[in-house]
Amino acid sequence: MSEATSTGYPEENYLTQGSTLKSWLLTTDHKRIGVLYLLTISVFFLLGGLFAAGIRLELATPQGDLVQPETYNRMFTMHGILMIFFFLIPSIPATLGNFLIPLQIGAKDVAFPRLNLASWYIFVIGGCFTLWALVSGGVDTGWTFYTPFSTLFSNSHVLPAALGVFITGFSSILTGLNFIVTIHRMRAPGLTWFKLPLFIWSHYATSLIQVLGTPVVAITIVLVAFERVFHLGIFDPSVGGDPVLFQHLFWFYSHPAVYIMILPGMGVISEVVATFSRKRIFGYKFMAFAVLAIAVLGFFVWGHHMFVSTQSVYAGTVFSVLTMLVAIPSAVKVFNWTATMYNGAVSWDTPMLYAIGFIGLFTIGGLTGVMLGTMGIDIHVHDTYFVVAHFHYVMVGGAIMAFLAGIHYWWPKIAGKTYPVFWSKLAALIVFIGFNLTFFPQFLLGYMGMPRRYHAYPEEFQVLNVLSSAGATVLGVGYLLPVIYLTYSFFFGARCAQNPWGAVGLEWETTSPPPTLNFDEIPTVTGEVYDYSPKKEAQVV
Amino acid sequence: MSSSHAHAPGLAHHFDSYEQQRQSASLGMWLFVAQEIMFFGGLFTAYLIYRLMNPVVFAVASSELEIKWGALNTGVLILSSLTMALAVRMAQLGKRKAIVGFLCLTLLLGLTFVGVKAIEYTNKWHHHLVPGEHFSFHLSPTEIGALQSHGIDVSDPAQAYYVQSRAEMFFSLYFAMTGLHALHMLIGIGLILYILRPAWKGRFNLDNHNFVEGFGLYWHFVDIVWIFLFPLLYLLGRHLPHA
Ligand SMILES: [Cu+2]
User: Fold this and answer.
1) Total CB pairs under 8 A between chain A and B
2) Does some domain include residue B7?
C-alpha cells in the first residue's frame, strides 16, 4: 500500500464509484450492499418502533381506552414481526457483517457478490409482502403464528405476513451461505483460523444457524399457508393434526434465531472491548469455541418454549438441562470480556460505552434466561411480562446495544467521517437509562403476574407500567439521536483519519472509506490476532 | 455486475484462481444442499410423526398409491443420476457434444418423471383422493377387513370419520412432499435448459465447469429425496391391508 493512500483521505473510494440510484441498486460491492441493508432495516426499525410506541401508550393506563383489543393484538404482532424478522435477524450480519467480513479477512468481496445483492432484493420483496399485510389491516396471531389460531380462526391478513417471513428467510439463508463460503475460501494468505477476529468466528457460528435453522421455519410457514388456504389437515386437531408439532417446528428455528441476533453482537463486543482496552482478548480460543458451542447447543433447547404445552415432563427436564448448559459458553464470553478489560488501558469512547452497557444488560438477560429454563419458575411466570422483559434484555439490551456499538465503532470505516463525541456519548447514556426504565419494571410486573399480550390490566400495576412507558419515551429519544447525528455526519461530518481508534485488524489497514476492491494489494498476514503489543501501541498513540 | 477480467475468461474478479473459484462454488452448493435437507426435513418429520400416530390408516391409505408408477419413476431418476454424472464428467473433460448429449438425456428422463407424476396426480384426482371438498376415501372389502383386524370398525360413524380424516391427512402429506419434490424437478429441468446453450457453445472445460458440477449436485440431491420418498410413501406397511 502506498504512503499517500494509507494516511490521507481517499478521494477514490467505494462511495465515489457512481452516485446514481442505478449504481447503488445494481451494485455487487459488499460494502454498498451493507449500506443498502442499513438503510432498509432502519426503516423497518422505525416502523416496529412506532408499534412499540402504540403499545406503551395504550398501557399507560389500566383501562383499554386507546385502541380496541383487536387493534392491540395487531399492534404487538406487527411490532414482533417487523423487529424480529426485518430488523434483529439482519441487523448486524447483513449490515456490519456484509461490510466487514471481506475487509477483516483480506478479501476483495464475499464469495458470491451477485447472490449477495439477490439476498437484499429477496429481503426487500419479503418486506413488501409484510408491508402489504400491514396496510391491509395487519395480523393478530402474534409473531409466532401459532396454530390453529393462525390457520383456522384468525380473520387478519396472515397470508401476506407469512409469505413475507417465508421470503425473507431465504435472504437470511443466502447471506449465511455466502458468509460461510467467504470465511472458508477467501481468507488472505497467512490468515489461519486462529488468527481470525472473533467478529468472524461469531458470524461463522451465526451463519451455520441461518443455513440450517431457517429452512425449517420456512417449510413450517408453507404448511401453515397450505392449511389456511387449502384446509390441509396438518396442524388441525379436528382432523388428526397436532398444533404442538407446529410449536416444535417453529421453535426449532426460533430459539436458535435468538442466537442469530445475539452472536454477531458478541462478535462486535469482542472487537470493541479489545480495541478500547488495548489488549488481546483474554482466552481467545475459548471465545471462538464458545460462540460455536452456543450455536450448536442452541439447536437442542427449543422444548423450553413448550413446558406448558403437553410436552412430557421428562422431555421438559432434558430441555431444561440443555438450556442451562447454554449459560456456560455465555458466561465464558462475559468473564473473558471482563478479564480483557482488567489491567487494560481502557478508554471510554462511545463504542466502549455501548459495549459495557451490552455486557451488563446481556448478563441480566442471560441469567433470567436460566431462571426461565427451570420448569418450576417458567410455569409460574409463563406468558407474563417477566418473559417479555427477559427477551428484551437479550434482544434490545443485548443485540441492539451491540449493533449501536458496532455502528459507532466502524462508522469512520463506513462513512470516513467523524461524529460528535458529546452527542454520541449522551445518546449511549440515554439509551442505557431509557432501556432499563422501560424493561426493568416489566420483570416486576411479570413476577407479580401481569400477563403479556393484554391491552388492559388491574389498577395496581399502573405505577410500574407508567414507568415503563416513560422509559420507552426516553429510549425513543436515545435511538433517534444517532439517526440524526450519523445522518448529519455522513453528509457534513469532518473527514476522519484512516484508523481513528488505533485499532489492529485488516479492516484498518486499508483506507477509510475503503476502495471498491478493499485493498490496493491483498495483505499477507504474519502477526497474531489482537496484537496490541506495547510496540504497536507506541506506534498508534 | 461482476466484471470478468480479460486475462482469465470465466474467472470472477474477486477470485485469485480457478481453484479458489471452483472450491467456493462447490462449498456453496453443498451448503445449499444442507439447507434443502433441513427444508424437506420439516416435512419428513411431520410425516413420520403422523405415520406413527396413525399407523394402520396410513398403511391402508398408502396402498392406494400405484406402486408400478412409483417404481418406474425410481428407475428413471436413478438412470438420470447416471447421465447427469456423465454430463459433469464430460464438462470436466471439455467434450462439448458429449455434455450436450448427456444433458439432453437427463432432460428427457426428468420430463419422463414429471409426466409419470402427472399421470399419478390425475388418477388421484379421479379417485377423489385429492384433499379438499371432493375427498372421499373408498374402502375395499379387504381394506375394511384389515382395519377391522386392527380394531377399527368403520361401521361406527366416529371411527369412519377417523379413517376418512387420517387418510386425508396422508394424502395431504403425500401431495405436499411429492409436490415439493416435483417443484424441485421442474426447477432442475429449467436449469438444464438454461445451461444447454453455454454447453453447446463449449464454455465448459477443466477450469470452468462449476455450473455443471453444482447443478449436478442439485440433481443428485433431488433424486435422493425421491429415494427416501418412494419407500416412505409407497412401500411402508404395504402388506398390512392384505394380511
Ligand atoms: Cu428459546
Assistant:
1) 117
2) no
| Of A222, A113, A131, residue with least CA distance to A175 | A113
At B203, the pLDDT band (50, 70, 90 cuts) reads confident
Whole-angstrom Cα distance, residue B80 to residue B223? 8
Question: Measured in angstroms, how far is the CA atom of residue A323 from the centroid of ligand 1?
Answer: 8
Tell me the pLDDT tens digit for each residue of A259-287. 999 999 999 999 999 999 999 999 999 99
Does residue B13 sit within a domain?
A: no
CA of A499 to the centre of ligand 1 (A): 39
Interchain proximity B13–A108, CB inside 8 Å: yes
Verify whether the Cβ–Cβ distance A239 to B27 is below 8 Å. Answer: no
Q: Which tens digits make up the pLDDT trace of B142-199?
A: 889 889 988 899 899 999 999 999 999 999 999 999 999 999 999 999 999 999 998 9
CA of A434 from ligand 1 middle (Å) equals 25
Phi, psi (rounded to 5 degrees) for A11 = -70, -30
Look at residue B3 and tell me if it is in a domain: no
Using alpha carbons, select from A237, A234, A213 the residue that is nearest to residue A298.
A213
Residue A309 alpha carbon to ligand 1 centre in Å: 14
**CA dist., res. A456 & res. A459, Å (int):** 9
CATH code, domain with B147: 1.20.120.80
Written out in words, the top-level CATH class of the domain with range A25-539 is mainly alpha
Q: Say if B10 falls within a structural domain.
A: no
Average pLDDT of the segment spanning A46-74: 95
Q: Three cell numbers at A511?
A: 483506507
CB contact under 8 A, A215 and B35: yes
Domain count, chain B: 1
Centre a 10 Å sphere on the Cβ of residue A508 and count the other Cβ atoms it contains.
21
Q: Report the residue of B22, B38, B159, B187 to disrupt the A interface, i.e. the one with the largest count of A CBs within 10 Å.
A: B38
Domain of B142, in residue numbers: 18-242
Per-residue confidence band for B242, with pLDDT thresholds at 50, 70 and 90 = low
A159: closest CA of chain B, how far (Å):
18
Q: What is the pLDDT of residue B4?
A: 42
Interatomic CA distance for residues A233 and A226, integer angstroms = 9
Domain ranges of chain A: 25-539
- Map residue A497 onto helix, strand or coil: coil
A289 to chain B, closest Cα gap in Å = 21
- Whether the pLDDT of residue B118 is over 70: the answer is yes
**Distance from the alpha carbon of residue A318 to the mean position of ligand 1, in angstroms:** 14
Hey, is B12 helix, strand or coil?
Answer: strand
The b-or-e profile of A228-265 (16+ CB within 10 A means b, else e) is beebbbbbbeebbbbbbbbbbbbbbbbbbbbbbbbbbb
**Residues facing residue A384 across a β-bridge:** A451
Residues of A in contact with B28 (CB under 8 A): 111-112, 177-178, 181
Name the amino acid, one letter, at A135.
V
Predicted structure pTM score: 0.94
Beta-carbon separation of A215 and B27 below 8 A? no
pLDDT at B241: 60
Q: Write down the pLDDT at residue A426.
A: 98
Collapsed DSSP state (helix, strand, coil) of residue B112: helix
CA closest to B14 among chain A residues:
A108
Give residue A225's pLDDT.
93
